[in-house]
Structures are given as C-alpha cells and as structure tokens.
Design goal:
The protein is built from 4 helices and 5 strands, in the order ααββαββαβ. The chain is an alpha+beta fold and 164 residues long. Strands 1, 2, 3, 4 and 5 form a 5-stranded antiparallel beta sheet that branches.
Length: 164
C-alpha cells in the first residue's frame, strides 16, 4: 500500500511541475503584451508548434523502476568504481568474484557487479550521481585494499539511483 502512495506522490509532483511551467510561460507572455504607459506595446506572434515547446521542461523523462527489494529507482548516467578488469581466461572470473566478496564484506552499502564483456571480466562498485562522490569512496577503498588500489578508478556507467 505504501508503494502506491509513493507512486501517486511522484505522479502528482510531475503534474504540478508541468502545470507550473505552463503557467509561468503564460505569465511572461501576458506581461510582455500588457499595455504599460510610456513603454510602448509588445505583440508576441508565435506558431502553435512553438507554444507546445516553450515552457516545457528540457530534462529527459525518466522512468521509475521497481527493484526486487520493493524499492524504486531511476536508471541514469552516473559513475561506478572499476575495482577489477582482467582478460585471463583461466583466472579472471575467479579473481573478480573473490574481490567482489571482499568488497561486499567491507562495503555492504554499495552494490557490486561482475560482468563479462569478451574478453574482459570486470568488477564495478557503487551507483554514484557525481564523480566527486565516487572519488570519495574510491579513496576509502584504496585505503582498505591497498593491494588492488592501483587498478581501481572511476568510470562512467549506467547507475541505479534510489527514489525516496
């Protein structure tokens, strides 16, 4: 039931935002066209297709996804920490999963993902909105794991950001 209220709240927020933008645009056009003594008169002529574009949010529409844990999140461009990358056919998979276990024990609050994109096995950590946030955690991880600190760095990736 709580999930329904969250979704309704998000929808209400989006509708309110769109209506506020449309009203703001209308207010600007009305203000420009109003007669002001001693200042002349402004006439705004615009095509109907322009009316539909002006005042509209330029931010891309984002889909809210539901996670297996019942939470909601957005998928967006963000940052992750690449903790391992290897292409040795015999050892890289095991090395990636063993490092994943170590990181999961030390940093359970950060998601870890092992992927295979031929010929590389990669281990990536976290879902960060900003590079600064990712660098802060990266520095902590380098202190915790000095043996694989040289190969860890921040990468641009698709991240899952929780919706509150």
């Amino acid at each position: 039931m709580n999930t329904i209220y969250r979704i309704l709240f998000i929808v209400l927020l989006l509708v309110t935002s769109v209506m506020a933008n449309a009203q703001q645009r209308k207010d600007i056009i009305d203000d420009l066209q109003s007669v002001k003594h001693g200042q002349g008169r402004v006439m705004v002529f615009e095509d109907n297709s322009i009316k539909g574009v002006l005042g509209r949010s330029m931010a891309p529409n984002r889909t809210v996804y539901s996670g297996s844990d019942g939470g909601h999140f957005l998928k967006m461009r963000g940052f992750k920490i690449q903790a391992f990358s290897g292409n040795n056919q015999r050892t890289s998979k095991n090395e990636a999963t063993s490092k994943q276990q170590l990181i999961n024990q030390a940093y359970p609050e950060h998601e870890t993902v092992v992927t295979f994109d031929s010929p590389f096995w990669r281990l990536r950590v976290g879902n960060f909105k900003s590079r600064e946030e990712a660098n802060e955690v990266l520095n902590q991880m380098k202190e915790s794991f000095p043996s694989f600190g040289k190969e860890m760095y921040v990468v641009v990736d698709e991240v899952r950001i929780p919706v509150n």
